[in-house]
Each structure stands twice: as structure tokens, then as C-alpha cells.
Amino acid sequence: MTFYKNMADVYHFIFPSQGKIDFLSKQFQENSHLLDVGCSDGRVSEGLAKRGHNVIGIDYSEDMIAVAKRISDKLSNMTVAQMDMRDVFEAYGSRKFNGIFCIGNTLVHLTNLEEIKSLLFDFNTMLDENGKLVLQIIHYDAVIANKIRTLPLIDNEHVRFERNYAFDTPLVRFSTKLLIKSNGNVYEADTALLGLKMKELDLILNEVGFKDVQWYGDFTGKPLDESSLQLILVANK
């Protein structure tokens, strides 16, 4: 995917990992076996591995996995693999994980609710009896209801990243413009994402067997509200 190919080497400048690592560490018991679905450049998995967890990360992007593999090769308790998330049960269905997390708005790269339900059913099956699921997507209820066309600009010494939305329910058109300041290269991309609503997601979670769902508005643990731009949930099997 060209979108992620151009981002791979600078992804950590666009989306720092520390806040995610801190939040996830609070959700899982020590020395857990974790599955990171949509691991991007692997830095969240790396942070959790360095805190004692055993982590498997997967991502569809070959370029992201190439970066993640350079990290995982230095760690005995982290491995990564390139694959479509819809194939995760085929690859790892014989294992039981203490936790599965799918963050970075990964889930809504699936194209319809049936695919979402199938994947979440697989997640539930792959978790042990006390397992936890953590998901994070954009809070599309807020984006669509408030007709938010532009997400906050990411601008630092390394990158400038612009993000814009156009609406074509149930899909959302996500357009980006990335400037890499070290070389002046500019990349533009356009991606169709599923505008998944909270009620739709909550219904599917219940249907596939998850319970005790907690909703958050960011990785500091702030409760979800109508102004939140992120939707994060923690659910028990």
C-alpha cells in the first residue's frame, strides 16, 4: 500500500508510541502473550516486549513490517509477520493469547460490518478465558455528526501531516498529505475507510461474546464523549 510505504520510516514521528504503550500496559497482566493486529512500525509491540510481554505483531504493509522486523530481530520475545488481518485466525488460531489489541484505526480498513464481525469473532476465539481485547479507531460518530472535515494537523521538526475527511456513508474518504522535512518529499494519498459507529461496534462485540466493555476518548484514559476524536475500548472475553 503506497500510503504506508511512504510513511514507514517516519511513522514514529507522526504517531508516537509512548502513550499507547502506557495505556496498554495497564490493561494486561505481567508477562502476557499478546497479539498486535496492525502493528505498523512495531514500536508499540517493542515497548510492550521491553516491559516483559511476549508479543506477535502483524501488519498488511510490507514496508511497515520491514521496519518492525529490524526492531523485533533484536528482541527474543517479539516476532512480526506480514499478513492480512482477515488471515490471522488461520495463522494463529491454534494459540491462546492473554490479550489482543488492534489500534491505529486498523479495524476500519475492513470493508463492511460482516468482515468486522468475523474478525472480532476470531479475536474472541483466540483469547484465553480471562483475555482482554483493546480496539482503537477514529470516533466516527463525532466525525460524521459534527461534519469534521479536518483532523488536527501534525507538525513537528520531522514531518507535517495533513488529514482530511469526505463522507460517502458508510464509507469515509480519508485524504492525507505528508511532508518529510529531511528531504522535502511530499506524498498524497486517498483511502476509503468504514465509518464504523459506536452502536454498531457495541452490538457486534456483544454478539461475538465480549463483555464488560469500557469506552475511552484517548490513551490517557479520558472517558469517551461526543467531542472525542478517538474511540478506544477495552473488553473482556
TrEMBL record:
GO BP field: methylation
Keywords tagged on the record: Methyltransferase, Transferase
A GO MF label: methyltransferase activity
Record-annotated Methyltransferase domain positions: 35-131
Keyword Ion transport: no
Stored InterPro entries: Methyltransf_25, SAM-dependent_MTases_sf
Keyword Methyltransferase: yes
Membrane-traversing stretches: none
Protein name in UniProt: SAM-dependent methyltransferase
Organism: Fusibacter tunisiensis
